[in-house]
Description:
alpha/beta, Rossmann fold
Amino acid sequence: xxxxxxxxxxxxxxxxxxxxxxxxxxxxxxxxxxxxxxxxxxxxxxxxxxxxxxxxxxxxxxxxxxxxxxxxxxxxxxxxxxxxxxxxxxxxxxxxxxxxxxxxxxxxxxxxxxxxxxxxxxxxxxxxxxxxxxxxxxxxxxxxxxxxxxxxxxxxxxxxxxxxxxxxxxxxxxxxxxxxxxxxxxxxxxxxxxxxxxxxxxxxxxxxxxxxxxxxxxxxxxxxxxxxxxxxxxxxxxxxxxxxxxxxxxxxxxxxxxxxxxxxxxxxxxxxxxxxx
Length: 277
């Protein structure tokens, strides 16, 4: 049984990400954990009466119960179960705690669909989640995106970091469940791979040998995000996989050009794999 965590603020965006998740795993036995967090600043706690605090808890709990009933009414799979969790941690801490406790397979979270900064596009909570996820793969779903199958998954790699078998388990599981093609996209200023990159590619070809795997390289590009989006559209991909390395080039991409720009035009869900190193 898969265990899927769905953070919610009871917005339409959060509902859309829940619908996406239920459809993605419509053929799989799953438990969906619906997580809502209430955060109170310490400075306001002393002035916050017990009655008001209890009212806030009760309201949130009632919303979770209502959301659970609405989710159960979707009825795509009789083996889908829904559980509710009300937390008083920051969202990223709540996700990490819940993931450890319930052995979560994926977190699925929606975007805000705004503009300019990555915080306004993803929402500050989603941004914080991505930067602080410890071990759980996170799928970021574009605003109002409808699940259209998962025929092809594109993985983006510079081939300078090791993508070992353990790291790729979530990708392989999704591919197995959906019979997805896997495409590795490498962006490079030069056409020739270094010796280390060649070895990494050989390793990936071995790890993914039993999958419908293909390698693609784009050289002499001018805009990374533009070429990635064009490739996704060209091959009709349904998901882009990024690996989040702390204090490395990809983190700089996240803060600056690549992921930020892609989120501004996000049309395809992104699976973000946290590297534990």
